[in-house]
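Quick illustration, no need to memorize.
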Amino acid sequence: MIRYIIRLRRLEALNRYKTTGRPATKLNTLQTTMQIRTDSLRPVIMAGLLTAFLIPACTASEHAGNGGVSPAVEIADQDISPEQLAEARSHYIRGLTARRLDDFDAAETHLTRAQSILRRSPGVNFALAGLYLDEEDYVNAIYYGNRAVELEPDNKWYRLLLVDSYRATGEVDAMMDQFEAILDQNPNDVDVLFLKARILSTQGEYEASNEAYQRILDLTGPDRSIYYQRISNFTRIDDTESIIEELNKVLDLEPGNVNTLLMLSQFYLEQDRLEEARTSLMEALERNPRHPEALVNLADIHINREEWDEASQMLNDLVSDSLVSTSHKIEIVQYVISRFSNEPENDELKRTTDSLIHKLLVSESENGMTHAIAAEYYSLAGDDEKSLEHLRETVELMPDNDAAWRQLVQTYYVEGLYDEAITTGKEADEYVPDDAFIHFFVGGAYFLKDDYEQAASWLRSASDLPSRSRFRSIIFGTLGDTYASQDKWDDAADAFEQAITLDPENDVALNNYAYYLSERGERLNQAREMAAQALELNPDNAAFLDTLGWVYFKLGEYEEAYEYIRASIETGDASAEVMEHMGDVYDKLGEPDRAMYWWQKALDKDEDRSYLKERLHIN
């Protein structure tokens, strides 16, 4: 459903903003505004820090005018001589200079000396706190920051430095206490409210964050950027009703904004408020009649209402429109294919998809992605011949498209066209060399053609190439089968062990390893454990049931062997080998007539088992 695809993209965009601050599609204005607002606050705070650093060097009247404790008071309280005050100021200025030159040791030495003389100077304590915060020494930053706040509790810059320090140490409650103290003194400080709201949001306190944003709106009036901040928070708590309310407020500020109308329609769609979604989309199309996303969403509404003629006409017009970009056309057809993949029995949807694929191929026949999409559709529709045809076109037009080559080789392999899989795989290796997936299917095709030397060569190569551990497990499992077919048992055992180490739940490797062990009469208890594990992972597999039964047969436990081999036959998928095994079990159970019956069925199913004629006394 497109509404869920769009919602996922929207959430991804919001998450990208949260982590990077970069604008993303459909939310450019929202994210850009958020970034400007957030980034602009830090320089203001830094300006406050610099002002505070300069306080001890000011005159008494200047200092008092900045809301601090004047040097004259400090001298009286601390009995500081003019000479000591001059020395403290000298160390203070040298400390600030060293800090600006990134000489931390010198800055710490001079500021510490200044603080030892002017212990009750909030500015000197603040300077030390800032120094330690820059060096990520949060213990000292918090200590000296608190000293500054105690000495001058009304100075918001001192408290904001503590906010930074507490935020770094994850002390959320202490951080909020500082915000509240600042806002108690100045409830209308918009920048502090904004910073508080942003931090609350990063802490997952979305409702509290929105309360802070609402206070900003109460103070400043309607503000598009703040509405989008609130929308971001509401999105994270899935409060769709509130999102719709905020988007309508944005529209009140910017009537007819196409992006806002589109977002609004998407949320209406999520709530199945189709008529309201349609109204928003029609308004967006009045502004931009060819807006692909609006048209696709409108088509989605027609599809949900099963208004197939309208949906088909709208989508076909889009794909036929020369003014619509190729990328948009491809996105439109991909959307319809995704709908078809969820409703393959819907004949109306299939007709619409057929028509769109045809029009896309006509208008964009030289575009490789067009053929790739057509191949995907025909594969879903079960037309493998056409799927292969368009995969071939894809790799001819886009020879570096590794995904198309993989799909082409795999399709030949799955269809049992092993010669074509091998030829195409070798061709693919020239354009996208060293691809583990392609090497695996070439090796697998050689294996199924009983060319074990070539199979082992390609599979060994595949096992050395980068791939996910589960896929490498499959490669090693197939390599184990190849070596076992060559009677290279040590190599086979190593390959199977590798396969199971990479993926302990590789049921095929567990089963095949167990079967080969049973055939050789080796480590039968281990073989029984692996066969039982494979069967637990895939309980209805006829071959797996037979393997466990055959291991029990080799252990001489014929009743247990009978139960599992009988269960294998009852699945309806039993091979001639399973039937032969049932004959062997009956033979050991002392029922020769039943043994003869199953041996005959095995021979009838596979005439190559001519050795059974001797047991059946056939000349």
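The first helix runs from residue 2 to 20.
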